[in-house]
Amino acid sequence: MAAEKKTDYDVIVIGAGPGGMTAALYASRANLSVLMLDRGIYGGNLNNTATIENYTGFKSVKGPELAEKMYQGATQFGAQYAYGTVQELNVEGDWKVLKTDMGDTFRAQAVVIATGSSQRHLGVPGEEEYGGRGVSYCAVCDGAFFRDQHVVVVGGGDSAVEEGTYLAGLASKVSILVRKDHLRAQPLLQEQAKQHDNIEFVFNTSVTAITGDDKKVQAVTTVNNQTQEKGQLQADGVFIYVGSVPMTKPFTKLGILDEHGWVKADTLMQTTQPGIFAIGDVRETPLRQVATAVGDGAIAGQQVYHYLQEKAAVND
Ligand code: NAP
Fold first, then answer.
1. N or C, where is the chain less crowded by C-beta within 10 Å?
2. Can you tell me which atom of ligand 1 is nearest the CA of 288?
3. pTM
4. Which CATH architecture has domain 8-118+244-315?
């Protein structure tokens, strides 16, 4: 007879990125039963990151490699991992009840929300139409398709400049289109980009449309934000890095989000819902990094333990 599937846990961590995996490590090491639920492979945005140079302990490490190492660490004390997109999180008495798109229902005494963020879309004509046919949000995943071709990167933050630099090693030319007259990216990343002769920065320029031949992208239509002059730039690929949006749709009814949709949590990672914690990129926070997510995860993993201890003491 097949073993019955376990559905009840002390803690369920939603999202198995660096923060979620750290919370799972701390909570399982404190002898709690822990399930990590993720809509994809563990690692979150690490899987879309070529190289990380600002995570302590590594001079430089590939994102997927760090994800694998974190997963080995996170599961060593019994934390489990399951596949599924959480569609609902409800509080029912003592239990937090989660429903997934796989038709599963799980229950936990405490939940850690670690769902992170996804890339913001530009919202211009042609963007959705040419998704996967030239428009991309992941240089590591799709860059190799544009070997020796001309790609456009949209954005002026850390992601645009870092991923533009990665693409410069593959493409013949990378044009980084920045809407203002300056970059927001950290100086070190700017310096690294400027070492590549095949990167050009085009300032004061917004993309108003992405065009193609119905099969694939051929160009972007632009406007100069100072002169209002319209233009067109040939492009085989368009990589969009214009910020991120929180992945918080299943939590909207809980009253724990700020006006932009990020989860509000205090310094102990507690939301206003007892037993529901939030960590990493999905949290209202001034810095979204692997290091900060890991720090949040450690605090939440420990705090979950205290929360359950106190709850058990009250019920005794
Ligand atoms: P971000 O810091 O929010 O930057 C978004 C960029 O996109 C800005 O340059 C912004 O321009 C531009 N932008 C926004 N909407 C636009 C539009 N409609 N059209 C054209 N440009 C638009 O986002 P991010 O670069 O993805 O970074 C997210 C977080 O991850 C940040 O905290 C960042 O520090 C962190 N990160 C760190 C590293 C690293 O440490 N190596 C690497 C990647 C990301 P304005 O400047 O004009 O607003």
1. N
2. 32
3. 0.88
4. 3-Layer(bba) Sandwich (3.50)
Residue 128 CA to chain centroid, in angstroms? 20
- Bridge partners (DSSP) of residue 96 are 91, 108
Q: Is 46's C-beta closer than 6 angstroms to any atom of ligand 1?
A: no
Q: Is 101 exposed, middle or buried (0-12, 13-18, 19+ CB in 10 A)?
A: exposed
- What is the token pair recorded at 144? 């190799």
List average pLDDT for each run of 10 residues in the chain, which is 316 residues long: 81 98 98 97 92 93 96 98 96 96 96 96 98 94 95 97 97 98 97 98 98 97 98 98 97 97 98 98 95 98 97 86
Question: Which amino acid is residue 122, in one-letter code?
Answer: L
Catalytic site positions? 138, 141-142
Place of tokens 């960590």: 279
Ligand 1 centre to CA of 9 (Å) is 37
Count Cβ atoms below 10 Å from residue 147 Cβ, excluding itself: 10
Name the residue at shortest CA distance from atom 4 of ligand 1: 157
Amino acid at site 198: N
Give span(s): CATH 3.50.50.60, the chain: 8-118+244-315, 121-240
Question: Which of 152, 184, 204 has the most ligand 1 atoms within 8 A of CB, as the residue to mutate?
Answer: 184
Name the residue of 242, 260, 262 to mutate for ligand 1: max ligand atoms within 8 A of Cβ.
242
3-state secondary structure of 84: coil
